[in-house]
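BUG: 3D viewer hangs when loading the predicted structure for this chain

Environment: internal workstation, default settings.
Expected: structure renders.
Actual: progress bar stalls at 90%.

Input used:
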Amino acid sequence: MQNRKHNAALTPHAKELRKSMTKQERHLWYDFLRTYPLRVLRQKIIGQYIADFYCAKAKLVIELDGSQHNTEEGLQYDSEREQAMRAFGIETIRYANSDIDNYFDAVCNDIDEHIRNRVR
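Structure tokens produced before the viewer hung:
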């Protein structure tokens, strides 16, 4: 099993990602996740990866995907990353940026449902 310990070498990059969130990440963070009843972290380092959002209580990673995730390399990387998360007992859910733009309320409801199902 991989080491889930915080990878300090990634801290500067995680901080930079927090400062330069995409429009969709900012929308999801400021308009839903920041005030969610359970703590959700932005740009959380887990092993050798940085998750867009992470709810530790639910062991749930929330990823927002731009077009780079639709390339062969992007799909391969995402697959490896999700496998690593599963090894830690963490589920990953993904949404396209267009889902945030066009179906924000539905995405928020889906995230809430995933969290509730995982903390039962």
